[in-house]
Amino acid sequence: MAAPWTAAQAASDDVSKKMLIQYLQEKAGDDFVNENKIGGAITSVVKRVTKEQLVDMYKKHIGDDSPAPSKPAAPAFSFAPPAGADGKGSTFSFSAAAPVAPADSGKPSPFTFNAAAQPPPSAPATGSFQFNFAAQTGGGMGDADDDEDEVDTSKMTKTRSGGKAELPIELQKKLAMMNMSSAERRDATIAELPADVRTRVESLEQLQDSVDALSKEFLEKLEQLKEEYEKKKAPLYKQRYETVTSKDGGVPGFWLKCLENNMITADEIHEHDEPILKHLIDIKYSAQLGQGKKGFQLAFLFSPNEYFQGTTITKTYLFDPDDEDECLTKSIGTEIDWKPGKNPTVKLVEKKQKKKGKVRTVKQEEPIDSFFQFFQPPSMPGEDEEMDEEEVRACTARTALDLA
What we know:
Elements: H1 7-11, H2 17-27, H3 30-35, H4 42-48, H5 51-62, E1 77-80, E2 93-96, E3 111-114, E4 129-132, E5 157-158, E6 165-166, H6 169-178, H7 182-191, H8 195-244, H9 254-260, H10 274-277, E7 280-286, E8 294-302, E9 312-319, E10 328-333, E11 346-355, E12 358-367, H11 389-403
Helix pairs in contact: 2-4, 2-5
């Protein structure tokens, strides 16, 4: 099977670290994966392996050992302002090292570029190439087509003492406005309006205050309405639970099928998760977190099983209480007490260790993808913490899944 990317494509931004890891884990074989230590959950591997390392692994796997193309060497050149014909430094000369002509000619192809004032050029020798320009007039500052950005100083004013030029009044005002608080900026803007316009603007502000009050009232009533209907739904949810778990056999694997039929959670369920999720008998939602907390909690109820201690696993989402847009500040998952050898989020791998000339085989746990990583939410970085690009992507992807 042909490789999906060339080495150059693999090194480009079009191919992410996650794509390379996934390809190597699936196609390179266990020996290659173990040798290069890229086994386990992709989100974990991403954090400990650089893009350059992954590209080298990919090239090794597809049999491409060619080095990265080197940058062409910069040509040697000299730039010197010789004196002009009148003895003034108004002319210049630029010359590049003569490149060698094709091998079959055996002759150099000299190239010269001279901008100094010169007499009319004589016919160039055979095989040479020469440009000659007379020195420019008008101060040597170039014409209107120069690439240098031009600064309009026509509106800049001198200080009274004849010192530095000051910024235009309009720009000074804009800078001053940027340093104001919103209230100060509002007052400054209103003060510049004509009296009749100012009156109309103030009436518009009063209208907006009324709209804001209604919006606040709407949100408060919406929360009350949500609570009212959650209470009305509760008996129906209880009946659903009783039907699923009824003594006559109920509906085995009901919640596993529900999760598999959901387009978001379906991709997170792996074969080794299914036997555990067959014990899932209910999922409950609650927005009553108490202590003035804003957010909600999901409770996953399981029947007693051979996989972990206890029967309830929770995931709690906390929002900023001062933000109307429900901005997530933290998510908390239950630390599951897995029974020995039953943790679906890791696998045991055998590795050889050499110590004092002796080789021994040890078993180590490596993370693997699992639905139950849902209960291991990423830590949200603090204000002063930094994350690299791949860590941001992994955190964003996991948080997006949490909120989906």
